[in-house]
Amino acid sequence: MDMQQAVVTVGSRGVGPADVLAVARGDARVELSAEALAEVARARGFIEDLAAKPDPVYGVSTGFGALAVRHISPELRAQLQRNIVRSHAAGTGPRVEREVVRALMFLRLKTIASGHTGVRPEVLQTMADVLNAGITPVVHEYGSLGCSGDLAPLSHCALTLLGEGDAEGSDGVVRPAAELLAAHGIAPVELREKEGLALLNGTDGMLGMLVMAAADLSRLLTGADITAALTLEALLGTDRVLAPELHAVRPHPGQAASAANMAKVLEGSGLTGHHQDDAPRVQDAYSVRCAPQVAGAGRDTLAHALLVAERELAAAVDNPVVLADGRVESNGNFHGAPVAYVLDFLAIACADLASIAERRTDRLLDRNRSHGLPAFLADDPGVDSGLMIAQYTQAALVSELKRLAVPASADSIPSSAMQEDHVSMGWSAARKLRTAVDNLTRVIAIELYAAARALELRAAAGGMPAPASLAVLEAARAAGVAGAGPDRFLSPDLAAAEAFVRGGGLVRAAETVTGRLA
């Protein structure tokens, strides 16, 4: 089914990563199951019962955060819920990407559909209607501490439900939210007890970004295995280090998967194993020989991050939470630490994978270590600079990735008059991971560009690259990635290589020969 026509049905038991991607990136329609609407209505009944009683209940009949000590009388409670949305919509800085906002809205809808938040069914339906209309609230880069949820980003989304603030229509034009709702026949929500708070109190932004980064990294890890194999081949390295029995004695599953990928790409190569010919070496350099160990560690890190994401996707993150027996209890499930930690962990993996790829590229360009390749892979070294500055660009990206690997979750700034005295900074961890994934894509693209040129030079000298390598070279050229030759305007070539990697062309090309890669 075309993802543009896909439908995601949300029940009361959570959603999966594919659902998030379908809605955030594929504009899939959202439908609410009868079961979810029934659970939501049931939980709402508990809230209305509590609202009718004189006892103070956090989020229902009290203020918020450090102001929770004040009991709010019934006639002020609708104003209380409106006010929390308006006051918390305090983001600043550049706009957040459309896919992130759609993931944010969808995941908040998912939590409300769980029946643990006490929101009325009509609010849930309005959220689905806004998503299906292609209305995207304007959300800003800065404003979330990742505790009490992604408060400012979610508040900007909730503001749209009220018909306030600005949002982007399906045509990409930003207009007042009230106009967009009216154009689609959507009535603004009038909030009641607990509802304003329930719309704001979750880890939805950081979780959505984790799910999307994980999908991108899965493809990049496979791409990195392919480029590592191309570089090994271009350096006349040995593929004996990829033997399954070597990796079985250190049984990390990611390592075995990366080694198997590289072995598949190199099958049938006439270049591997010639490391003893011109400048004898007992073994290849670490950046070549240890490629499966480093990329494999990234794979295992990603597997752990996906486990955390799946648990969070099955969660109902709110405070207070409505339990099955009708109790409404305060809790700390909104704290973003579990998600923040793995977001930071993945940024470390991105930095190290980029670092080893850059070292391989530099080896390809250095005539003292490249085993017969011309300096900087230039057509006429001295007259031509070849890929000298492409490696500078790659090094700059790697340096930035190392800075992005500094964990955000190790920081905490107290807020709300010390009531919220420890925060996760998970939103910040997610934002920098998105940048890290983008930079890693570019680093892998530059290694691809260099390895492809090196293999062409080997082939011109009579060597025979592996069939999978030749398939990658052919597809890259068809995608606008230029081959060996005199110096040329390099930036467009690198942009074409980046698009080839980012769009999955690299992996698809190799798989035409290897079959499915891990």
From TrEMBL:
Pathway: Amino-acid degradation; L-histidine degradation into L-glutamate; N-formimidoyl-L-glutamate from L-histidine: step 1/3. InterPro entries: Aromatic_Lyase (IPR001106), Fumarase/histidase_N (IPR024083), HutH (IPR005921), L-Aspartase-like (IPR008948), Phe/His_NH3-lyase_AS (IPR022313). The modification 2,3-didehydroalanine (Ser) is found at residue 148. Contains an active site 4-methylidene-imidazol-5-one (MIO), which is formed autocatalytically by cyclization and dehydration of residues Cys-Ser-Gly. Keywords: Cytoplasm, Histidine metabolism, Lyase. It is an enzyme of class 4 (lyase). PROSITE patterns: PAL_HISTIDASE (PS00488). Its main location: cytoplasm. Its EC number is 4.3.1.3. Belongs to the PAL/histidase family. This is Histidine ammonia-lyase.
